[in-house]
Description:
Blueprint: H1 12-32, H2 38-79, H3 82-114, H4 138-143, H5 150-156, H6 159-176, H7 181-202, H8 205-220, H9 229-255, H10 259-276, H11 283-292, H12 298-311, H13 314-330, H14 336-351, H15 360-371, H16 380-383, H17 386-411, H18 417-421
Amino acid sequence: xxxxKPVKKLGLTTKIFIALVAxxxxxxxxxxxxxxxxxxDTIFVNGIFHVIGTGFIRLMxxxxxxxxxxxxxCGASSIGDTKSLGKVGGKTIIFYLVTTALAVTVxxxxxxxxxxxxxxxxxSIEKSDVTTAESTSVVDTLLNIIPENPIASxxxxxxxxxxxxxxxxxxxxxxxxxxxxxxSNFFNQCNNLMMEMTNLVMxxxxxxxxxxxxxxxxxxxxxxxxxxxxxxxxxxxxxxxQLLVVYMLLLFVFTRLNxxxxxxxxxxxxxxxxxxxTSNATIPMNIDTLEEKMxxxxxISSFTIPLGATINMDGTSxxxxxxxxxxxxxxxxxxxxxxxxxxxxxATLASVGTAGIPSVGLVTLSMVFAAVxxxxxxxxxxxxxxxILDMMRTAVNITGDAVCTAIVAHQNKDLDREVFxxxxxxxxx
Length: 429
């Protein structure tokens, strides 16, 4: 009598990927095959899809501040002495700033070659309201990192201030040792609680992802892409160069890890980032994947990943670089070398402190436009199709965080190559 094999349950990543594909298909069907009306628009697109999709994103946002706060305290305190923490922090921040500057350079180069704004029919572009961000000087940017009231920073979700406050607590807990054992245990338990809460919220991810994708493509369809196809091609090309060339070269040069194996193991996190368009939502999955599949010590990743979700926005910087060239060409403006250097500097600084939430890059883009004298209203040209690009650049953002973490862990001797090279079951897959 032959034994019947138990049916293997679908893992979370598989369910998310199925939901992603199903959402794309259903959204396009709604856009192309189902006529506009009360049932399609009110009940489904702006009703069921909107409520469930937005509700899931709000659940993820609910986790962000307590998760980042507790994770960074535990990460900083577990690294131990301040000298080691300073080395890890310094390398991480330098890496993030350098890759962001490289990302903007890649974007400007690609857009200059493809020339997306040449011959654009301005009358075919749908105008939208634009949210403007105030330009902030370097001095103010640095001062704004220091919280005047850390409780208010936690309440308002001012991430750079939350990060600094958490790092100070973590460093002092490490320095105090046994004298602060009770408090250290408290924050460790808070961190464990937030991880459990994240797992609970993530169990609803497939439904949330399906609804978000279905709503997005119900509204976009195919026609919205046609006037701006060259702009999209420029952004996608820039993202591809950053992901497959810049990141993978850095990974191989600094760690000698196999880039193809890295991408294969990290793909589920990229797929989730693509579907949610929020770097913050991927923090727990990113940390878990780096530890379980890549052999990266959690004491490194729990420090670098939340930090990267806040200050490392290479994908967003690529969009901003392409958008500046696109708008300048559309309006017939010559930027010149000085203008491009200003864009690189401004976009790099603008990425520091950018919240890891959907479409925030469009708000900070206004700072970049203002810096080179472009009309801020030009952002309305790309708002209609930004959602799909936002999904792609979020996947690039979080991959940059992971590559940086792997490099820092390798240099700190906190990377287990046996785990990286092992073929293993994926709890997320």
